[in-house]
């Protein structure tokens, strides 16, 4: 299967550090790897409504939810590019992930089986110098991947507060060069780790 990367941008501003860092990492992907970029601020999703147990719940066929759903199931690799907001993912990103819960129960979609074995990655900018404050975000993505039976490639972290700051984080830019080339093992919950 040809690799197809979906970049899901979750910053509440355009051209921020997270996107800059994600684009640096994406530049290293081979040309035959397809890339699709979706900006959740430019094309906002509606609030997630929990219809999982309603029998008339159907797959959306138009609008932003259908667009991002189609892009998600077409991707071999989903890159969550969210800034660190209150030590976790942004609200835009969280809403996208909440929609996954609806898709898990959408008749005819088989979302979990479809995504199993595919790879989840993260890219995050944060203002804090000490990167361990991003552990809750990393845990969210790792555990989500584990629940879905997906691989997890880890989270590329970069430091910055105002847009463009991350371009001065030379260590992050160096990590970006090889980030998507690294191994992405099947995700495991922390209690499963050997
Ligand atoms: C709502 C909000 C919450 C934030 N929470 C944190 C945080 O918990 N830890 C941190 O280090 N930086 C925090 N920041 C700073 C951003 O992570 C930082 O400005 C980052 O560069 C934003 O990424 P962006 O340029 O891609 O939008 C927060 C910023 C905002 C707007």
Structure description:
Keywords: Flavoprotein, FMN. GO terms for molecular function: oxidoreductase activity. This protein has one domain (4-189): Rossmann fold, CATH 3.40.50. It is built from six helices and five strands, in the order βαβαβααβαβα. The chain has helices at 17-26, 63-74, 91-104, 111-115, 135-148, 170-178, and strands at 4-9, 34-39, 77-81, 119-126, 151-159. Strands 2-1-3-4-5 form a five-stranded parallel sheet, sandwiched between helices. It starts with a strand and ends in a 16-residue tail after the last helix. The model has no long low-confidence stretch (mean pLDDT 96). Flavin mononucleotide binds next to helix 1 and strand 4.
The backbone outline, from C-alpha atoms, is globular
Low-confidence parts, pLDDT < 50 over ≥5 residues?
none
Topology as a string of helices (H) and strands (E): EHEHEHHEHEH
CATH class: Alpha Beta
What structural class do the secondary elements suggest? Answer: alpha/beta
Fraction in beta strands? 15-25%
User: Which molecules are bound besides the chains?
Assistant: flavin mononucleotide
The CATH architecture would be: 3-Layer(aba) Sandwich
CATH-assigned homologous superfamily: Flavodoxin domain
Helix segment tally: 6
InterPro entries: Flavoprotein-like_sf, FMN_Rdtase-like_dom, ISF_SsuE-like
Pfam families: FMN_red
Keywords: Flavoprotein, FMN
Domain NADPH-dependent FMN reductase-like: 5-110
